[in-house]
Amino acid sequence: MSLSQGDQLGRFEILDPLGAGGMGEVWRARDTELGREVAVKILPDEVAANAVRLDRFRREARALANLSHPNLLTVFDIGVDAGRPYTVAEMLDGRSLRKVLRRGSVSAASAVTWALEIARGLAAAHAGAIVHRDLKPDNVFLTRDGAIKILDFGLAKILEPEDFNMVADETISDPTDAGTLLGTMGYMAPEQLRGEQVDTTTDVFALGCMLYEMLTGRRPFAGGSRAEQISSVLRDDPEPLPSDLPLTLRTVVRRCLEKRPVARYQNAGEVAAALEAIDLDALEGIGGGGQAEHVQSTDSGSGITVAVMPFLNLCGDADQEYLCDGMTEEILGAIGKVRGLRVLARSSGFAFKGTDADPREIGRAIGADHLVEGSFRRLGDRIRVAARLVQTSDGSQLWADRYDRTASDIFELQDEVSVEVANQLRTALLEDEVARLKQRHVPDREAADLFLRGRYLWYRRREGDMQSAISLFERAIEKDPEYPQPHAGIAEVMTVLGANCYIEPKIAFARVRNELDQVFALDDLISSAHACRAMLYGYHLFQWEHADESFRRAIEIEPNWGHVKCWYAGFLAGMRRLDECALQSRAAAAAEPMAPVVQTLAGVNLINAGVDEGFAFIRRALDMDPDLPTAHHFLGVMLVNAGRFDEAIPHLEQGFQAGIFLDAALLALAFADLGRSERIAAIEKQLDTLATERYVSHFTRATLALAKGDHELCLDQIDDAREQGEYETMMIECMDYLAPVRTHPRYRRHLELMGIPEGVVADGSR
Fold first, then answer.
1. Pairing of strands 304-308, 370-379
2. Between the CA of residue 464 and those of 121, 467, 469, what are the distances in Å?
3. CB 133 within 8 A of CB 97
4. Which residues of the chain have pLDDT under 50?
5. Quick one: which of 42, 147, 470, 482 is 20 to 30 A from 14 by CA?
6. How many whole angstroms separate alpha carbon 616 and alpha carbon 623?
7. Which position among 134, 415, 449, 480 bears the catalytic label?
8. Residues with Cβ < 8 Å from 63, sequence gap 6 or more?
9. Do both 40 and 24 map to the same domain?
């Protein structure tokens, strides 16, 4: 049913038409309550008449309306008036990317800038579990003030009138039936054309098609008829991009257009990270067969991405390795404080330690356009450090220097190298930035040496090494009580020991609180200390607001630390803030793509947020480290949650062998479900024996009781776990295997005492 000028739709006064097409009518309207102009879209009659499509419309509208991102069309309202479903969105002034591309290719700088903003908007949608499925230039809008907006997630298309009348593409769509095609020829991924399941990688393929088209003026896959186009997408490689484009850019496009979804970037966040690593200045004067204007990036940073590689140990003594790693980490931390530089997390560079990988290969793998490399040699009381800056696009050396100092000058040397690296990457450092690099307590030399030794052991993450690290940190504090880093080191180790129940949580977190008091009295800018305080508040004391504040502060100080984003995502999952959980999880995975533990935790949190794609993250971690206990443990937990007990058992067995006691109880649960109850008694006896040597958590006992069918004992142990402050008690709504006791009043009482909302899944059901 069509509208006319002057009609009233709810509180919206219809003014004049903007366009019409198969997806509905779009009108300019006035919000009579707020006094602003908006775009109102009336969906076709067939949507109103189809209950399935109408329900889908409502769900997608709500999901999109909950997203807030400058590169997504803002949806203000949805409604149904006289049987007509409609959406209300912001009014845009500008033109579609399709209209721009009718003139031909755009400059390489414009293409990358626009693609980056599209990727950022799409990443927000992906984090909200929304897949566009029909991304194309027609659905990207360039406003007159230079903003990029993604349109039409099955909801809205606010374009110029002629864009509606132009039949530029053949869109294939029937969103009511599973297995039917949804998309536009020329931008559909192979799996779409085969009628297979689509996910975030499908949008990545479409984005790659668009970026290729912006750079060349043509689509990547040719063909006259529909059959020829399909054949080209399924079998052919696109023609190579112009050789004057940087290798980093060509690599991004090539990876987006991989035939196999697993070989592509896994989501738009990863694409954005790769595009951010491209130097826009290096693109000036390249491309631009058309007349499109250049749009300045909305990012305030310079787009320079740097990784600090592990310094080589030339001492001939493996015992000096801790000094090399310490030099690397101090420089990494220092340049990470400089505005305009994006410094990748420790795991990115250390993933290549001990290898002879080419800088160009490293750059492609981790999304860095510059590497800081160096070597360290100690001879008695003298140290010699060589450092250089390498451009990953071609492996060329941009700067190099050598420093000879006494060992007591090591901190000044670290500052000197950091300032020089930053100056090489930027035209100049502001005075306040130089000062910020040097804002540190210069510790006693012996204390610093003890701290570096302890941190070296801490990063190995073995239980015995963690205890030795604490001893070294304590000795460092004895030598220099004003040195904050050893206090932070103890807090971090004890947080991990307590959260994982290697020791009694009450004992561990009492120590954490004491050490944090010491840290914050000396220095408020240590990210790990804020992260530990967040874990103390959130995972032990259950003080949600304080935890949230501390997590945000830790991320503000060190935005590329993937571990803390994973911890925060876990907290958000426990609080049932699932959209935020997914966003932080993807950000963590993108920040540390070479860290298998981060990929594991990101995957777990995505699954807890209702995104099954998380399983791929965990399996990717196991590809990187097949023996990683954390990955086996969490994969086992997630498989048990999903009722896939046969698959879970080998992973749980490996986790238990590595000392994760909860996996023993989960094994008992799996055996109970599979009718192998004789195994349960043996597992219980084994845990009783282990309890004489190490703390066995109450939550582990609760899981074992559930396996035995003793629901009252299970709930008793959950109560004891809460009193002890075991972190699983705040994650309890993520433990789907607890379904047999979830309706019990005592379980509901636990949620009330904790202040945890009852769990929901993506479709809104319990």
1. parallel
2. 45, 5, 9
3. no
4. 1, 155-181, 289-302, 427-433, 759-766
5. 147
6. 10
7. 134
8. 128, 129, 130
9. yes
Single out the residue in 400, 415, 439 at which a domain terminates. 439
CATH code of the domain in which 179 resides: 1.10.510.10
- Per-residue pLDDT at 16: 81
Alpha-carbon gap, residue 313 to 322, rounded angstroms: 9
Contacts 24+ apart (CB under 8 A), 673-677: 673/643, 673/645, 674/645, 674/646
* pLDDT for 23: 58
Q: Does residue 365 share a domain with residue 451?
A: no
579 has catalytic annotation:
no
Average pLDDT, the chain: 81
Beta bridge partners of 406: 382
Query: Which residue range forms the structural domain that includes residue 83?
Result: 8-90
Would you call 142 exposed, middle or buried from its count of C-beta atoms within 10 A (0-12, 13-18, 19+)? Answer: buried
Bridge partners, 382 (sequence order): 379, 406
754 with 720, same domain: the answer is yes
The residues, any chain, with a CB within 8 Å of residue 429's CB and separated by 6 or more, are 338, 419, 422, 423
- Lookup: tokens for 110: 């414009």
Q: Report the C-alpha gap between 674 and 519 in whole angstroms.
A: 50
415 in the same domain as 451 = no
Closest CA to 704 of 722, 679, 724: 679
Say if residue 33 is in the same domain as residue 169: no
Contact assessment for residue 663 and residue 656, using Cβ atoms and an 8 Å cutoff: yes
- In degrees, rounded to 5, the angle at the alpha carbon of residue 176 between the alpha carbons of residues 173 and 182 is 25
Question: How many residues in the chain?
Answer: 766
Token output for 19: 């366009």
With residue 657 as reference, give the H or E element that holds it.
helix 645-657
End-of-domain residue from the set 421, 439, 457: 439
DSSP string computed for 675-693: T-THHHHHHHHHHHHHTTT
Return the closest-CA partner of residue 40 out of 120, 135, 155. 155
Task: Report the greatest alpha carbon distance in the chain.
Answer: 88
Instruction: Report helix, strand or coil for 242.
Output: coil
State whether 269 and 335 are in the same domain: no
H or E element, residue 321: helix 321-335
Q: How far apart are CA 636 and CA 113, in angstroms?
A: 42
What sign does the CA torsion over 431, 436, 438, 441 have? positive
Residue 578 domain-assigned (yes or no): no
| pLDDT given for residue 257 in this prediction | 92
Instruction: From 446, 497, 443, 432, select the one nearest 470 (Cα to Cα).
Output: 497
CATH number at residue 64: 3.30.200.20
Closest CA to 89 of 29, 35, 149, 39: 39
What local confidence, expressed as pLDDT, does residue 176 receive?
A: 36
Question: Which residue, 27, 12, 268, is CA-closest to 131?
Answer: 268
Provide the number of structural domains found in the chain.
5
Q: Are residues 384 and 494 in the same domain?
A: no
Backbone angles phi, psi at 231, to 5 degrees: -60, -40
Intra-chain end-to-end CA distance of the chain, in Å: 38
- For 202, 378, 629, 634, the CA distances from 655, given in Å and listed in that order, are 34, 41, 5, 9
pLDDT of residue 224: 67
Burial readout 53-68 (b: 16 or more C-beta within 10 A, e: otherwise): bbeebeebbebbbebe
Task: Looking at the structure, tell me whether residues 221 and 313 fall in a common domain.
Answer: no
Confidence at residue 183, expressed as pLDDT on a 0 to 100 scale: 63
Helix (H) or strand (E) holding 115: helix 108-127
CA distances from 738 to 640, 641, 713, 744 (A): 10, 9, 13, 11
SS3 percent helix, strand, coil of the chain, rounded to 5, is 55, 15, 35
For residue 751 the two structure tokens come to 């949620």
Tell me which DSSP letter residue 731 carries. S
